[in-house]
Write a structure and sequence with these properties.
With 642 residues, the protein is of the alpha/beta class. It contains 19 helices and 31 strands. 33% of the residues lie in helices and 23% in strands. The protein has a 5-stranded parallel beta sheet with strand order 7-6-8-11-12. A 4-stranded parallel beta sheet has the order 16-18-19-20. Strands 23-24-25-26 form a 4-stranded antiparallel beta sheet. Bound molecules: coenzyme A (COA) and adenosine monophosphate. This is Propionyl-CoA synthetase.
């Protein structure tokens, strides 16, 4: 018997025009589309060409006009500042309309870019929706990135305005943003016209000419109406790590994004209008874009801006307190957050203090949910569904999931379940041939991708083609490797590029290598992501020093650790490096990062046939042991921990 999921899925693949055309009826259009799927410029597929819409009208105005103006749109809960605030749809629409007016007064118009560098405050949502309202393109940069990373994004996006805040607040420290923003602008070739600053009492920013106060500008401005934009016009650019230090500017359009996210709210997450769906992520990541900034508001549900951590704000009961206080129906977070909770409260004692009767489903993504974390979450949550789902910045929404609004399929530990509607997932070998079930290969998606996915990279069609659609003609290359089992469940096992995943954050080892290589004493280096029980992976650096360098190695290590923190940011969590005499390479000179990683992880590895000098691998092994890394892993494996 074919289940409901299978039927809906098959229709999405065989009749994408009908499937997404119907889904698009739920969205407000100023002008209907000419074509649902436009394949006239393959492989640059576009959705809803000719259509005109406005994302902000769909997220705010239409709900107010439909009589839901008093419903809560946004809940702001900030344990680090002791604040809880609720915004109704009407209130939020009015704030956004005024800030849009302020941006317009600063000269921001349709198509202009605005960089948003803010902590988890509701003003980040006001700024992004205000951009959408006037057809400007926002680019949110994660607050954990340093000035240099921000400057690279400023040069690529060339924003007219940067919207920021006077500080961010981490558990143990207040982070003033002024030096960071000013250093980034100083480093960049492009100079924005204005910087708008949300003043926070924890640390004020002494404003200079060209730097404006967020609420003063908002109060002075007149509200403005939504501007119709093309469905294919860009809504935002979100930079993500690639193989090199130059991040990829993933573009999201307006029409396809509205249609797709609206569809996911009920079909994947089983959320209804008026219900609270909390994504405990950050506005700087794609999860934050889709399920803090946009998804809930497109659908008429309630979103949550949480300025805190799973632990330490104040304890490992923070998530349960939030769920009770705000009547959260579903929570979405990264497995690493649950590992953090488990580490502090292994028997989940704190859950018992709270009333979780409204809570139904836990969704996890950002990295593979390891079976131990899955089991602990299931047990701690009294058998409520715990749903791993797999996606990427590029895709904007889940490629594989258990579609809880369609049919709850049996959960298999280690798998994010099956491809979501619209995603024709296949596992291919290097000759682009589909592999039999159970065999590991490159996970690819047959083109066209569904709506809401990246149409291209910002100002870089060439890199889009090279990164995603060249290696496997006719397919999108996810750069994830894995397999599908006999039942069609997907398993994501590893990346095929130099991207690593640290505490649910996607980072480029290539970018870290570029920083290490800039150190005066470093001749050559490699950074690999090695397994870590808590953060999933951690970067470890290997450096070969220039001939004649006699300084103590600890000093050099300290310096490169500081360089990565200063130039990429604390989020890189780069704390370990070691000096080696040589790096293992193939005869053609390629560094064998994969082999180094396997040695560090105590995984079985084969001597690469093309290796230049096998002895070097022994040297790497002892270098790892010297920094306690391999030894620590061995101990963990023996103690049977995750
Ligand atoms: N601004 C400034 N610094 C930041 C920052 C921000 N927005 N976010 C993180 N950092 C800093 C942290 O303070 C930490 O600094 P430290 O080296 O001085 O301790 C460093 O960056 C590393 O941060 P992180 O990896 O987040 O570690 P953590 O110990 O602070 O927190 C978790 C661990 C698991 C609680 C946290 O990583 C988490 O919640 N991860 C989930 C990620 C996520 O939501 N991903 C999106 C997919 S759902
Ligand atoms: P990002 O673009 O930051 O969302 O990171 C995307 C990458 O994170 C994917 O390509 C995967 O490597 C990894 N990832 C995200 N979610 C999952 C998941 N549920 N299972 C396995 N890997 C995941």
């Amino acid at each position: 018997m074919t289940g409901k999921y299978q039927k809906v899925f098959e229709r999405s693949i065989t009749d994408p025009n009908g499937f997404w055309g119907e889904a698009a009826e739920q969205i407000h259009w100023y002008k209907r589309w000419d074509k649902v799927l436009d394949d006239s410029k393959k492989p640059f597929y576009r959705w809803f060409t000719g259509g005109e819409t406005n994302t902000c009208y769909n997220t705010l105005d239409r709900h107010v006009e439909a009589g839901r103006g008093d419903q809560t749109a946004v809940i702001y809960d900030s344990p680090v500042t002791n604040t809880v605030r609720y915004y109704s749809y009407r209130e939020f629409r009015d704030l956004v309309a005024k800030f849009a007016g302020a941006l317009r007064k600063m000269g921001v118009g349709k198509g202009d870019r605005v960089i948003v560098y803010m902590p988890m405050v509701p003003e980040a949502l006001i700024a992004t929706h205000a951009c959408a309202r006037i057809g400007a393109v926002h680019s949110v940069v994660f607050g954990g990135f340093a000035a240099n990373e921000l400057s690279v994004r400023i040069d690529d996006a060339t924003p007219k305005v940067i919207v920021s805040a006077s500080c961010g607040i981490e558990v143990a420290r207040v982070i003033p943003y002024q030096p960071l923003i000013e250093a980034a602008i100083e480093l960049a070739d492009h100079k924005p016209d204005k910087v708008v600053v949300l003043q926070r009492p924890q640390h004020e920013w002494a404003l200079k000419p060209g730097q404006l106060n967020f609420y003063e500008e908002l109060e002075k401005a007149s509200p403005v109406e939504c501007v119709p934009v093309l469905a294919t016009d860009p809504l935002y650019i979100l930079y993500t790590s690639g193989t090199t230090g130059q991040p990829k500017g993933v573009v999201r359009d307006n029409g396809g994004h509205l249609v797709a996210l609206n569809w996911t709210m009920k079909n994947i997450y089983n959320i209804n209008q008026g219900e609270v769906f909390w994504a405990a992520s950050d506005v700087g990541w794609v999860v934050g874009h889709s399920y803090i900034i946009y998804g809930q508001l497109i659908y008429g549900a309630t979103t949550v801006v949480y300025e805190g951590k799973p632990v330490g704000t104040p304890d490992a009961g923070a998530f349960w307190r939030m769920i009770e206080q705000h009547k959260v129906k579903s929570l979405f977070t990264a497995p690493t957050a649950f590992r953090a909770i488990k580490r502090e409260d292994p028997n989940a004692e704190l859950i018992k203090k709270y009333d979780l009767s409204k809570f139904e489903i836990l969704f996890l993504a950002g990295e593979r949910t390891d079976p131990d974390t899955l089991e602990w979450a299931q047990k701690s949550l009294d058998g409520r569904p715990v749903i791993d789902h797999w996606w990427q910045t590029e895709t904007g929404w889940a490629i594989a999931a258990n579609c809880m609004g369609i049919e709850y399929l049996p959960v298999k530990p280690g798998s994010p379940t099956k491809p979501v509607c619209g995603w024709n997932v296949q596992v291919l070998d290097e000759n682009c041939k589909e592999l039999p079930r159970g065999q590991q290969g490159s996970i690819c998606v047959q083109l066209p991708l569904p709506p809401g996915t990246l149409p291209t990279l910002w100002n870089n069609d060439e890199r889009f083609l090279k990164s995603y659609v060249t290696d496997f003609p006719g397919y999108y290359n996810t750069a994830d490797a894995g397999f599908m089992d006999e039942d069609g469940y997907v398993y994501i096992m590893a990346r095929t590029d130099d991207v690593i995943n640290v505490a649910g954050h996607r980072l480029s080892t290539g970018a870290m290598e570029e920083v290490l290589a800039r150190h005066q004493d470093v001749a050559e280096c490699a950074v690999v992501g090695v397994a870590d029980n808590f953060k999933g992976q951690l970067p470890v650096g290997f450096m070969v020093l220039k001939a004649g360098v006699t300084r103590p190695h600890e000093e050099i290590v300290k310096e490169v650790v500081k360089m990565v923190r200063d130039q990429i940011g604390p989020v890189a969590a780069f704390k370990t490096a070691t000096v080696v005499d040589r790096l293992p390479k193939t005869r053609s000179g390629k560094i064998l990062r994969g082999t180094i990683q396997k040695i560090a992880d105590n995984e079985p590895w084969k001597m690469p046939a093309t290796i230049d000098d096998p002895v070097i691998l022994d040297e790497i092994k002892s270098a790892l042991e010297t920094i306690g890394y391999a030894a620590a892993r061995k101990e963990t494996a023996e103690s049977g921990a995750a």
